[in-house]
Amino acid sequence: MTKTKRLLLSAAALSMIALSPLAASAQTADARADAAVKAMTQAEKLQMVFGYFSTNATWMTGGTKNFIFPKEGLPDSAGYVPGIARLGIPAQWETDAGVGVATQRSPTPRLRTALPSGLATSATWNPDTAFAGGAMIGNEARLSGFNVQLAGGMDLVREPRNGRNFEYSGEDPLLAGVITGNEIKGIQSNHIVSTMKHYAFNAQETNRFTIDVKVGDKAARESDLLAFQFAYEIGQPASVMCAYNRVNGAYSCENDWLLNQVLKTDWGFKGYVMSDWGATHSTVAAANAGLDQESGWAFDKSPYFADALKEAVNNGHVSQARLDDMAKRVVWALYATGAVDDPVKGDQSATIDWAGHAKVTQTDAEESLVLLKNNGLLPLAKAAKKIVVIGGHADFGVLSGGGSSQVYAEGWKRFDGEGPDGFPGPLTYYASSPLKGIQARTKASVVFNDGKDPKAAARLARGADMVIVFATQWTGESIDVPDLNLPDNQDALISAVAKANKKTVVVLETGGPVVMPWLANVGAVVEAWYPGTSGGEAIARVLTGEVNPSGRLPVTFPASLDQTPRPKLDGDPKLDDDAHPHTDYDIEGAAIGYKWFDKKSLKPLFPFGYGLSYSTFATSGLSATADGKGAKVSVSVKNTGKVAGSTVTQVYVSPAADAGWEAPKRLGAFAKTALNPGESKTLSLGVDPRLLATYDSASKTWTVKAGDYKVMTGNSATDITATTTIHLDQQTLDVRGK
Ligand code: BGC
Predict the structure, then answer these.
(1) Is residue 734 annotated as a catalytic residue, yes or no?
(2) How far is the CA of 276 from the centre of ligand 1 (A)?
(3) Taking burial as the number of CB atoms within 10 A of a residue's CB, which of 178, 216, 261, 732 is the most buried?
(4) Each residue of 347-361: pLDDT tens digit?
(5) Which of the four CATH numbers 3.40.50.1700, 3.90.950.20, 3.40.50.12370, 2.60.120.10 does domain 370-548 have?
(6) Which pTM does this prediction carry?
(7) Alpha-helix residue ranges (DSSP H) falling in 144-298
(8) What are the structural domain ranges in the chain?
(9) What tens digit of pLDDT does each residue of 684-717 get?
(10) Which residue has the CA at smallest separation from atom 7 of ligand 1?
(11) Residue from 93, 150, 187, 405 to probe ligand 1 pocket by mutation (most atoms less than 8 Å from CB)
């Protein structure tokens, strides 16, 4: 048979597959991807692995050499990869990101629903809420014509100043992995691809394109990589986005250890690795290290995966088998998610269920709010006659985080002079006003002051029955915050107001942890994160008691930066891209967040897992048994208060003798349970054996040491309510924890 004939035959077979989805879906994604690649010409294979930036803005055409707007791409979006019509393979239309369908900077952004920040969703400690949010934003992506969502951000919070912490899921591998995994699963339930990103150790924005992170294999596997591993197992993301930074000397997107070894070999990832935009630095090194697709090539110094890759395959520097594998991984992802059989149909945004989606984001926000302090001020007293609301543009709406993940929503606004003119701006508020939400729920007179003049605000506050100060901290991609204080003199504003009236409630809208020099002088504090497009309603409902707060901190709030592994941030924003700054994550290794605080006996401002309720809960009957290679925990929870609410059961585990752990204890399991007053439930929770083990790099195994282990319940990482001890026999698990 001639080559052309073979090609025609296999193409015919493939188009039959493409034409009859029923027969096709009976075949595995693997078999279909193999057949597709066999039918592809070399040019088509190369086309699969080369991505375009899809924003035709003048700031881009003017600023980036060789920029070509792909005509079939969707305007103002992150990316586009052409399809192969004759083989039934759709184009890849890519959009950011984790809280909804984003738009790149544009005069005419698409208007969509935004979830609360990723960190907020993590604060719900509710995998079902995370799934529902993912399913909702994936639906809006599909109805906007996108079949690849650049979501699943989950670098662990090693640096509280990181400008992108709001996009991620906190500091704990289990919590972050479970929450992000469920978001990804929700997105992909729409038959579209989700990424998981930024792989890996992209924990600061300062010098993000160049910084070299030093981290040992063992510590890595027990921390950030474990988070990614959990999320991968739960969510099965069809794509992974490699990060900008270097790890142990090699760029993440040409890092054989991260891509070929850990992700593809050890975990068995079958999908494709796409680069972050501007994170591809070579042709041969990147392709051979495991990068499968160059994204938004206009951001790279050169179109590395275009002609240069063709030549590298011709001259044998990259094998034909490797190019076939790259193309196969991309199409496998499209078959496996259903993106081929259930293709997106362009812009159908007119059919979006706005009211339904508003409920989804509002529920997420309501569950994410963390009541940090309450000396009885909340919920707002029904008898209050005069309430003063101050600051945070609370008369208009709620803040969102900035950068490529920016979702624009109906009525969004940038206030004059606030935030940078360029990226990662615009500093955006959503039109969901906490003030209006409060006014609608109280008979009191509610007056607003913008908080710009602390003295005037304090004067107004004096004598009111209640004062609510809204304080904001805007964070965004590409910049870290200089410190953990609230910007723009807001600490002074809160102090002045609290001095004038003790009945002051502070509502924080922040990207991550902040310090609170005024804490002792205020009556209540609520952390509201960036609460999304229904955030104002959610805040009002929690303040007035329509909703009982149930969020718990997914991240430690340090008392000061001196307590953190790197009191001074490594790198310097002034360095150019030829510099080679370093940061050392072996300082804390796997002891991130509460683990570091535990190990060093440091007292944080607020610990991981902390959060109050308008009700009280009790746990009883804690027992634990060895179960397979891990453990099973049984515990009863009861609502002992007067109002319905949800509690988060946190199970921590700790070896009785030294077992070589990175820190005294780890979160082993958690569950969120809704309970009516007086109601109780008995929970059965499994502890993954990897959370009882240490990783051995030489043998690529996890070992649970024989010995006694404490199994504890806690209201937070520092408030243990009950302890039981179990004996575990020695267990050896493979690299996948089996
Ligand atoms: C960000 C990614 C994003 C990409 C495409 C990059 O700057 O780091 O998170 O997905 O842009 O917009």
Answers:
(1) no
(2) 6
(3) 178
(4) 999 999 999 999 999
(5) 3.40.50.1700
(6) 0.96
(7) 173-188, 217-221, 224-235, 256, 284-289
(8) 1-38, 40-342, 370-548, 615-733
(9) 999 999 999 999 999 999 999 999 999 999 999 9
(10) 277
(11) 150
